[in-house]
Records
---
Amino acid sequence: MTGVHHGLGLLLVLLPTVSASSTGTVVRINRAALSYVSDVGKVPLQRALKVIVPPLLDWRGEMLQPTRIQILDVRVPHLDLKFIAGFGLRLMATANFTIKVFCIPEPLELVLPMTLTADAHVARGPIRTPVVSISTCSPLFSLASVLNGSNSTSPLLLVLVQKHIKAVLSNKVCLCISNLVQDLNIRLGTLIGLSPVGPESQIRYSVVSEPIITDDYIALDVNAILFLLGQPIVLPLHSASFVLPWPVGTEGVMATVGLSQQLFDCVLLLLQKAGALNLDVTGELNSDDNPLNTSALGRLIPEVARQFPNPMPLVLKVHLGATPVITFHTHNATLRLQPFVEVLATSSNSDFQSLFSLEVAVNLSLQLSVSKVKLRGVTSVLGDIRLMVAASNVGFIDVEQVHTLVGTLFQKPLLDHLNALLGMGIALPSVVNLYYTNSEVFVYEGYVVISSGLFYQR
Ligand SMILES: *[C@@H]1O[C@H](CO)[C@@H](O)[C@H](O)[C@H]1NC(C)=O
Ligand SMILES: *[C@@H]1O[C@H](CO)[C@@H](O)[C@H](O)[C@H]1NC(C)=O
Ligand SMILES: *[C@@H]1O[C@H](CO)[C@@H](O)[C@H](O)[C@H]1NC(C)=O
Ligand SMILES: *[C@@H]1O[C@H](CO)[C@@H](O)[C@H](O)[C@H]1NC(C)=O
Ligand SMILES: *[C@@H]1O[C@H](CO)[C@@H](O)[C@H](O)[C@H]1NC(C)=O
Ligand SMILES: *[C@@H]1O[C@H](CO)[C@@H](O)[C@H](O)[C@H]1NC(C)=O
């Protein structure tokens, strides 16, 4: 735990003060998530409530005698959480403490039932993470029942023992809840951790404003900042804030995440600036049947055949000067690329010689999916690839003719490259050990929605 503390402290020091553009992302934690927390939270709560009770001191004769008391077991049969609109959360729990009292002459066992109600305020903390704080905590104890025991226990002692246990637990139970909430806050703090996006680039989420809390959900407005070589990427346009409709996506899921177009624009800008989208297409350079060769091209462009009487390998240098444009229409995500392709030949002295260059336009359909904490993409070509000659060192080029050769040869490597890159995925907002499960991705006009379950790995 202290490790996490130190990590957070370090992060705080490293946090640059950035007022980069908003990349609207909304994370909605729904009621189903509270049921899940109630389920998985019982065991940790039971463990936390198994506190140490100091011995009871009472006068017997002239002596102050200690009576040892031990909590043998804690059962939490009910744990319920619900949202308090505009405020935070209410926790309601019932617990049975099985307590052993080492009284003389024989020990006895008691079961002490408790009902606990605690309210917690959820707010945005100073380091832009969600912070939970207990505002009220009231444990209520019922009469203890004696499990076994003997007639020899004096009723007076029983009364004293119960009074003592209740007084101790009243304090300790609320302290336990506070400690659990402290741990939770440390975990929530990991939201602002940096996650890699691509080569030399990272993403970090932070909470922009106070959470919105209704009876149905708690919504966090989260901003993503993307970094290239440690520098934040700033988008020129976009100032409109992103509003996620309600309900949206699949109902009844634990989490609903809305990702605005701005986020994707920013990620693509980052990948383009990082040069991650550029690639060189080469065939098997030393293979005998490398289809990327000057003799194949020479059949279409006479000047190539003239300059290269012997077949030489070709290289296609694909460069994305313009940022790809992503468009979200209901059920459709498309990516528009305008790569610049330079066609080079290896000459006899193994230098590269530029033959011609092409401006290419291609539309890709983008399928999105979620695995663990990452949003991944797969693309496929939509329609045709459009080619235009930008420059030529080999005279006239019939675009129609080179289309088949260059278009087909360049399409697969480009898709493989993009899919490898998008397959690595972008980290979604998350905290340590929390994963998205059974996620569905919906594409709407201008934004993407992820409806998902959550899984906490202890
Ligand atoms: C807890 O205590 C209550 C009251 O004594 C009892 O009715 C209930 O069965 C107990 N539950 C468990 C799980 O021991
Ligand atoms: C009460 O029960 C516990 C086990 O449940 C046993 O260890 C203890 O001796 C019993 N005490 C009496 C007084 O019967
Ligand atoms: C308690 O005392 C009564 C009578 O004094 C006796 O009948 C009973 O067996 C005792 N019970 C125990 C558990 O010792
Ligand atoms: C050149 O490419 C064509 C197909 O485009 C292929 O049939 C031929 O084997 C290749 N030649 C060499 C020498 O790689
Ligand atoms: C959306 O995608 C479907 C299937 O992929 C396609 O038939 C349709 O034309 C697309 N619509 C738009 C507006 O791109
Ligand atoms: C790509 O899609 C846009 C918008 O639908 C369209 O205007 C353009 O002609 C398409 N380009 C290609 C190469 O298909």
Note: The CA atoms of residues 72 and 105 lie 20 Å apart.
---
Amino acid sequence: MTHMHVAGSIHADATSPAPVWLTRPEDVNALTPKLWSSSVTRDPDGVVSVAGLKLTDLAGQVGTPAYVLDERDFRERARGWRDAFGGWTVYYAGKSFLCTTIARWVVEEGLSLDVCSLGELTVALRAGVPPERIGMHGNNKSEEELRLGLERGVGRIIVDSADEIGRLERLCAELDTTARVMIRVTTGVEAHTHEYIATAHEDQKFGFSIQGGQALVAMVRCYHSPRLDLLGIHSHIGSQIFDTNGFEVAARRTLKLFAQFKEATGVSLAELDLGGGFGIAYTKEDDPASPAELAAGLREIIAHEVRGFGLVEPAISIEPGRAIVGPSGLALYRVGTVKVVEIGGGMSRRYISVDGGMSDNIRPALYAAEYSASLASRSSDAEPVVSRVVGVHCEGGDILVRDEFLPSDVRPGDLLAVPAAGAYSRSMASNYNHTPRPPVVSVLDGRVSTLVRRETLDDLLALDAGASD
Ligand SMILES: *Cc1c(COP(=O)(O)O)cnc(C)c1O
């Protein structure tokens, strides 16, 4: 979402269709460290390896396409967020990517876990995540989902609507229990990468409006409900956020609400959640702040606002997803065809088709998200040329990497690796064109483990009621 491509956005003196932001690499074989998990290197023989395992060997073992997670890198990132925000609670946002193994790693590294569906809650419980460390999100949680959460005693339910408050009260009465709840509020802040918008209008489906007064009403209602234990307020302002500006406005607006609640009830609320959305580098142009920088900035903002409103500082939590699992994962594809297409103005574009596509990474098609790619099965002395990496699907928009410099001799059989593919790729994958979803494997000390196996055509046919006729 950093770079939108419109006609004319290529270099004015273009001889190749490179967008303005994309600079020609000095060495097309070089791997930009911020894009990759910490163990990724190009070996002396030119092959890219992860955690001591060559991607050529990995492809031989598990096939392509595949999602590859660097276990140590994931654990270090999780711990890095926990340590940088010491004293605060860090919830890993399971929607970015969740399976039982990941849930266990998250808990082992001292984090808590956010879920936002019955499916994610089921995975978390199956993994043995202590229920008190689970937070439940969702704007339309089912009764089944809420009941399971209440029966197992989840740590908090982030309440999103007046209907949900009533539903929770009824379920709590039925189960003779109480629910620990936070009120999801809309602050009117919408943040994306370097830009954020702070407005009064909040035209989206999540939460209770602060501006419209519904948030305070909901808080007071929960506070007075014998079945609900109101912990505090939750705010989530966006995704791919690179700095603290948007959080500053959101913190001011939420803490003002704390002050209003205190005025109305005499009670200081105990908890504030600032949500997730911390950005990562998908291309060389992206420059996200480190957890340490963000932590220092957010601590200062909170301390300042708490002082300003004369409040006792609440316990704070955050919910990074992408920033933990994104850079730990790469997507590995095999090249099938290469085509050079004349696009006018004396320019041509190189289309490299790989064996995956929008079914395993919908983000470029859905959000115009940018990615990068590197030739992984060998190095090359060939000239870098602007290339577009596309998939196998029957859609012109089936693009994985819109623009990237790749060696001009990329050919069928080569492996391409797309970095920063750990988040929102497998978790948003589909079976479009009856395509089985790729496996998720992890690598540690040169050894591969399967986290989620590859889907098969038999898996898909098993759902097809007429298939056995
Ligand atoms: C999506 C989401 C997150 C995680 O966002 P990331 O961009 O992966 O950090 C956290 N909290 C809430 C409420 C979300 O909806």
Note: Residues 1-8 have pLDDT under 50 and may be disordered.
---
Amino acid sequence: MNEVLAQLRELRAGDLPTHGGRTLAYVYDSGLSEVDEIAAAAHALASSANGLDPTAFPSLLRMENDLVATAAGLLGGDAETVGTVTSGGTESCLLAVLAARDARPGLAAPGLVLAETAHAAFHKAAHLFGVRKVVVPVDPVTFRADPAAMAAAIDESTVLVVASAPSYAHGVVDPIPEIAAAAAARGVRMHVDGCIGAWVLPYLARLGADVPPFDFRVPGVTSISVDLHKYAYCAKGVSVLLHANAGLRRTHYFASADWPGYTMLNPTLQSTRSGGPLAAAWAVVRHLGDEGYLRLAEVTREAVARIRAGIEGINGLRVLGDPDSTLIAFTAAAPGFDLFTVADEMKVRGWYVQPQFAHGSSPLNLHLTVTAANHGSEAEFLADLTASVLAAKSAGPVTVDPDVAAFVAALDPETLTTEQFGDLLAAAGLTGGDGLPDRMAPINALLATAAEPLRERLLLEFLGALYTPGPH
Ligand SMILES: *Cc1c(COP(=O)(O)O)cnc(C)c1O
């Protein structure tokens, strides 16, 4: 047993660090070691229990109701508010769309109105559930949804309007009251994607931050998603989808008695549901409590302010928009250096920052998800960022061979064969095997020249190459 675990530890040592604040995307670290211990112990206690049947495992039923009640209390819910614990933000968003679609079964082409900064989970929902997307451009300076344009996009077949609190890419809260009012005026549901922000924004507001209204206190908001595995600092695998009342939630439930086995009865996309993540979240939320989250929000807020001010002071960088929460996106204020190289240089110095490709009005930028664990090392982060920008400046811009760029620009992903994709991936340096090379800038620069459908296909083929077991 020890040998197996030693092997696992060795494997894990090759990952990005999930603690210590050096990985500024994907992971959320409270910086409190007992939080991990309690989560692990609670996970172990309940991982064999199955949420498939809450009457067989009433502990899971109780913990789910407790978590939903806590989330509803935090987000201005009332006695009518109900919810569902899901496996993550994407599942919460999928279920919000599914519930909205199935509440209007007569529609031939149900529509989803979303700001272009809405999370890709909604594109996935539209894809999976056959819902027509109506993507509305955001303000090109603030990156906030444009309420007039959102209102104008609503029509008779709109089943759901989506905005974010805040958006992942820029960390800004959309004007929820105006958008919700427009939706309500047309009798349409309005989902607030609070996956990344809804657990921390209420605490930031209590600390005096100027947080725009976004929760159930806003008339017209019918559902909110909030991920506990983000700023509730829970172990991965837990999100909550709240609905303003049970009638709104009802249409994402599923039952089937049409087979010889047990009547399948599912509130979520999963059927067997591990009790592990739920119990871990329940334990962490109770352990930290309201005061614990307030303290974590306080240090996170300080870290965000220091990092933001530091970035604004680095020659050549510019923060995008006016971030409302704990996320910061910054871009190059002038040509002459390459942001992908800055990310590579940060990697060399032990930090992971997340490149975001240009899209619509949003230029190529680097994203930071700041958590409580970043508090205390802001100066070190900023010194390394300054050095990384200098290194990128002296390296100069990464250029893609114009012939290669022209070749890539002319490719049609629809007509390429798997073999041609293989050649392209090899040419791009994306061959799978040991994963990614240390220097991503040349690959990212090439990917940036590819139109989005081609980039999607290339990366999917790459994913397939990654998920191919080698010889055993
Ligand atoms: C993270 C996130 C999601 C998706 O959540 P997952 O847990 O990664 O599935 C959806 N919306 C927003 C705003 C997010 O930040």
Note: The longest strand covers residues 158-164.
